[in-house]
Specification:
It is built from three helices and six strands; from the N terminus they run E-E-E-H-E-E-H-H-E. By secondary structure, the chain is of the alpha+beta class. The strands form two sheets. A three-stranded antiparallel β-sheet has the order 1-2-3, with no helix packed on it. It has a three-stranded mixed β-sheet with strand order 4-5-6, covered by helices on one side. Helix 1 crosses helix 2. It starts with 18 loop residues before the first strand and ends with a strand. The model has no long low-confidence stretch (mean pLDDT 93).
Length: 145
């Protein structure tokens, strides 16, 4: 008997976007709408900071989680509009011989008690599409800052 989780299926498609990469981690990436259009570089390979896939993932996860937090807090009548979410993405060798990711989400919710903040963070983690996509695939640590 398999214990694999059933994938989340969409009832309806609300939005579609795409991005195209050429040259891998040290190549170039563009989005279909033209808003993303830049060179990539592996961390530490250029003298100047450069965008890499982990930076893009961190930005997307932080924004998505922030939206989930706002949504879940609103259902409880809590204003989290001044909150911030920082996604720290780690990249490194994995036990299987390849490479993997880990994420720490550090959430600050001014004016909300730490125990309530932690509760809201857990609710957002259950609701966020990025959290659903990473669940049971990578380690995601939640921190109420």
């Amino acid at each position: 008997m398999s214990t694999a989780l059933k994938p989340t299926e969409l009832k309806k498609v609300s939005y579609v976007t795409s991005a195209t990469a050429k040259g891998g981690r040290a190549g170039h990436v563009t989005s279909a709408d033209g808003l993303v259009d830049f060179d990539l570089a592996q961390p530490g390979t250029t003298p100047e900071p450069a965008v890499n896939p982990e930076t893009l993932f961190a930005a997307g996860y932080a924004a998505c989680f922030q939206g989930a937090l706002l949504n879940r807090a609103k259902t409880q009548g809590v204003d989290t509009s001044d909150s911030t979410v920082t996604a720290s993405v780690s990249f490194g060798p994995a036990e299987d011989g390849g490479f993997g990711l880990a994420v720490e989400l550090s959430v600050t919710i001014p004016g909300v008690a730490k125990d309530k903040a932690q509760e809201l963070i857990e609710l957002a983690h259950e609701f966020c599409p990025y959290s659903k996509a990473t669940r049971d695939n990578i380690v995601v640590t939640l921190t109420a800052a």
